[in-house]
Amino acid sequence: MPHTQTRIRTLDAHWEWKQRDPALHSALDELALPSFVAGAADAEITSADADADKGADKHTDTKKAWRAATAFPSEVHVELLAAGLIPDPFVGFNEHAVQWIGHEEWLYRTTFALDALAEGELAELVFDGLDTVVDVYLNGHAILSADNQFREYTVALDPTLLHFTNSSTDTDTKEDKESTDNILLLHFKSALALAKAREAQYGRVRAGSANLGDPSRVYVRKAQYDWRWDWGPELMTTGPYRPIHLRLSGPARLAHIHARTTALAYPALALDVDLAFASHTARTHVGSLKVGVELREVGSGEGEGRVVRSEVVNVPVGLGSGEGEEGGREETLRDVLLWAFRDGEVALWWPAGHGAQVLYDVVVVLLDEEGNALDRATQRVGFRSIALVQEPLAHADQYGTGSTFLFEVNGVRVFIGGSNWIPADNLLTRITPARYRAWLALLRAGNQNMVRLWGGGVYEPDVFYDACDELGILIWQDFQFACGIYPAHASFVASVRAEARDTVRRLRHHAALALFCGNNEDYQQVLQWDVHTDLPARVIYEQVLPEAVEALTGPSSSNPKDEDGEKDKDKPRFDAVAYHRGSPYGGDGWDTSDPTVGDVHQWNVWGGKERAWQEYEGMGGRFVSEFGIPSFPSLPLIKYWAGEEGKEGREGKGEGEELHAQAPVMAQHCRAGMHERRFAILMNENFRVSEDLETYAFRTQVLQSEAVGFAYRVWRREWRGPGREFCGGVLVWQLNDCWPVTSWAIADYYLRPKPVFYTIARELAPIAVGILRTVTKNRENDRPKQFYEFGAFQTTGSTLSIWGANNTLTPQTLTLHLDSFLLPTTTTTTTSTDTLHPFNSTSHPITLPPNRSTPLLEIPLPLPHGANAADGVRVVVHARLRDAAGVVMARASDWPQPFRYVRFPDPGLRLVRVPSGVRVEVRRPVKALVLSLVRAGKEEGEGAVAEGEWEWGRWSDNALDLVPGDAVVVRCEGLEEEGVKVRAAWMGRERAKVVPVEDV
After folding, report:
1. In the beta sheet, which residues pair with residue 798?
2. What is the three-class DSSP state of 313?
3. DSSP string of 267-309, one letter each residue
4. CA nearest 448: which of 815, 757, 161?
5. Angle at CA 576, nearest 5°, toward 572 and 579?
6. CA neighbor of 221 nearest in space, from 286, 133, 134
7. The 3-state secondary structure of 113-148, one letter per residue
8. Do residues 222 and 129 lie in contact, with contact meaning Cβ atoms separated by under 8 Å?
9. Secondary structure of residue 712 in the 3-state scheme
10. Average pLDDT score over residue span 842-871
11. DSSP 4
12. Cα distance between residue 409 and residue 397, in whole Å
């Protein structure tokens, strides 16, 4: 008789929620309360009423009855919003009106029917994620107490606690059938209260600066940004935020599979499969087992791809010999099969920009002695090898020698350009799979090849990592520790050990996974704040986490060795995923700022020493894993978050009394520490003073674009070839936002790119050109070397350093074209038809070797005949790299600095319609030309973006520096719609205006 096949049912229906009523003795007593009926005496509050009352005292209504959940998984803020019981916490000051939620307790319940179990069958509940402190009851019996948001919990169910439906008949009443339902109750308690209780027990510690939330957060394994961060609000979420499953299985099932690939033994590629089997009965009741394994190429579209190879193997196991993690019995078999592939049989997986992302499904089927399928599992893999290379440098740069910190994929050293990722919403259940994919597609469209998942958020759902595999985005995964002195008492370490096991097992097969990292800035906390002589959590970062990574991803017996015990390079080798203790980390004595070793977080422009961004050239390191400059978002988004304060502006009656850059509501939506003085320094140093909000917001975006773009440019320059990989990569802080806010994000909460997004994309293009101007003065001073001086110091000359970067693996033969323009003076008159021609043009044949930057020219700044050195403040230099066909492969403009001295001319902008886009032409040089799309009658745009409309109005390129004679074509989704208009803003015209599009 065949054994029972494993079946999994997701419990996503019939969920209800309510606020815990402390007047009732037990949460179980609340099961007797009725379900809410709209229109009854306790009718729900309208959204308008909630906004008007800011939620004050309205939450008492949530204790009276159970309310149907709007979706599942669920989170209580989402349900309260849907019921109109709280105001939108993202608007105005509403965040402060919903703080009561985190101090309360909340209940969720559902029912499910279950047929009687077959002989030898086991029922289990699998909880993919619970936020966070929760007691779980089934049919009135406690089955689980959990306090770790990052864990997966599995509970084997005692059959005597279950209700079965098999005995029901057609004559049974509704009440009879309901009595056979199983009732699952989740009682969520306050994470705030638990954190404070543990702080009282173990002691108060330092956990970052004051704007990073209450330091008691370190004691609870919950997303740390929920306590507030310097870019996010304080919203203490709670609820079943990941799916819950009912699993039914026979005497044996597949507990885990680990399909490992390698590309280390060239030219052969290999696949190794480890299997973990689970059983709740003795081996003698299982019988003989087999495993069928199939490797299938992932097909395009709906069709399945070809089967590359398949095999059925016997399972030589004694199930029941070991204990599993949840009290069951597990046995792991290493190397159930090892396949080596002939040349061309399978293809390599490559990161974005270096090749295709070819993926394969490894399908594993557990079979009984009669060939019946007992269980089935699939993992998607790519054939590749990724290594973190830290080796001594053969040459020295400005910091010395030290060692590399770079990533090597399939034997190729890859320059990394990417972004840091934070959760894309404070309310995680609102992030749809489509939204995750849209964010990562945006990153890929920006020529980026890595995303770092920061340690103060969550381990993202599978769709995130799947999308990275498909798009070729390498993954740097922090474990969830950020900016704190974390504890290391026994129960905390045990919880983290289980968390690490769950996380590594879930993520280890992903082709894009490049690195696990122990924490974010925890070592740095000790040095920065000088508040602790030791770091208790070192046992976690230096033992628990690396041991989990090594044990669950590392070498097995299949790793070949020769007679001397050394690895045989001619046979397949499967190495562990790289592990890095913390970010930043690398120097002696935990020195987290040594530029010659490890990675660095560069916060000495915004923060720290508050240096000028033009000095980023001297503030790099072997790998810059964090840096950034914040900016305001677009004006429509500001008006959305301003709420009543921005209402007049939304209605076209002006900006409104409170809608200015220093208004209270603007501070509510800018959490960066000391943002007023830091913005003031950078803005006043580089731009003319303006009180106009639109102008100010635009200039903050230009500031961010110029600063971050410059950093990418000069740090990528330090990727100079073998033995000179002085900078292996740059990750900007940050890609995204979790709410509408002024922040470091390069795209706003609604996925609308800021100008900096496009600047980064150009700096990370496969081929790029860079220009650096150095202005000499009559005496040394502490000003940036790019600045012209007109006070106590005088300009005596200017020089240009020009280089190219080639990330392709082939040499590029190109021509460098340089054009120099003299900007008009304040007394020069021009008309809209005048064209400014270059006063100097030169061409230079060049060759860019593969996978490195190359110096091209060191020349004096061209000046018109009769000009003096100070006239360089009016000279714009434009560089283009063209191939043999005349196609522009890269372009860059160098404008004089600081911008406050520059008179930006009217560019004589012309837009000519082309299919799905426009050709952009100018008659005079233009700086930071930003195009936007608006629908007719809505010249101010929309504050919010509907689900799935993220691509609308997005340009293929933007924030353009253009000169006469170098027109560009840019595409835009939605441009062809009737009634759509194009608006444009640029330096010198920061308040955007509608520009006609000509049909030619």
Report:
1. 775
2. strand
3. T-EEEEEEEEEEESS-GGGT---EEEEEEEEPPSTTSPPPEEE
4. 757
5. 150
6. 133
7. CCCCCCCCCEEEEEECCCECEEEEEECCEEEEEECE
8. no
9. helix
10. 97
11. P
12. 25
* Residues 110 and 16: beta-carbon distance below 8 Å: yes
CA 720 – CA 726 distance, rounded (Å): 7
CB neighbour class for 965 (10 Å; exposed up to 12, middle 13-18, buried from 19): middle
- Fold of the domain built from segment(s) 7-246: Jelly Rolls (2.60.120)
Q: Cα separation of 454 and 744, whole Å?
A: 14
User: Is-catalytic flag, 521?
Assistant: yes
Angle, nearest 10°, between helix axes 635-642 and 693-716? Answer: 120
User: Rounded to an integer, what distance in angstroms lies between the CA atom of residue 427 and that of residue 926?
Assistant: 41
Residue 218: per-residue pLDDT: 98
| Gap between the terminal Cα atoms of the chain | 77
- Please, is 809 exposed, middle or buried when counting C-beta atoms within 10 Å of its C-beta (0-12, 13-18, 19+)? exposed
Helices (H) and strands (E) in the chain, counts: 16, 43
Closest CA to 93 of 667, 665, 673, 659: 665
Between CA 615 and CA 620, with CA 619 as vertex, the angle to 5 degrees is 130
Query: In this predicted structure, which of 360-364, 581-585, 617-621, 939-943 has the lowest mean pLDDT?
Result: 939-943
Task: Give the three-state DSSP class for 876.
Answer: strand
Class of domain 386-556+568-763: alpha beta
Half-sphere exposure in the Cβ direction for 436 (13 Å, CA) = 18
The mean pLDDT of 754-778, rounded to a whole number, is 98
Supply 277's token pair.
């089997």
The C-alpha atoms of residue 178 and residue 201 are separated, in whole angstroms, by 45
Q: What is the mean pLDDT of residues 76-93?
A: 97
Torsional class of 39: left (φ above 0), alpha (ψ -120 to 50), beta (otherwise): left
Instruction: Name the burial class of residue 813, with classes exposed (0-12), middle (13-18) and buried (19+) by CB atoms within 10 angstroms of its CB.
Output: exposed
Instruction: Please give the CATH number for the structural domain made up of 765-903.
Output: 2.60.40.10
Instruction: Tell me which residue has tokens 């194009």.
Output: 982
Contact 342, 350 (CB under 8 A): no
pLDDT greater than 60 at residue 557 = no
* Three-state DSSP state, 908: coil
The catalytic residue among 460, 499, 521, 706 is 521
Q: How far apart are CA 80 and CA 101, in angstroms?
A: 10
Multiple choice CATH, 251-381, 3.40.50.10240, 2.40.128.20, 3.30.70.580, 2.60.40.10: 2.60.40.10
Cα(500)–Cα(503) distance, rounded to whole angstroms?
Answer: 5
Amino acid at 49: D
Q: Omega before 132 cis (within 30°)?
A: yes
Residue range 905-1000 in CATH 2.60.40: yes
Phi, psi of 761 (to 5 degrees): -60, -40
> Has residue 653 got a pLDDT over 60?
no
Residue-level pLDDT at 321: 45
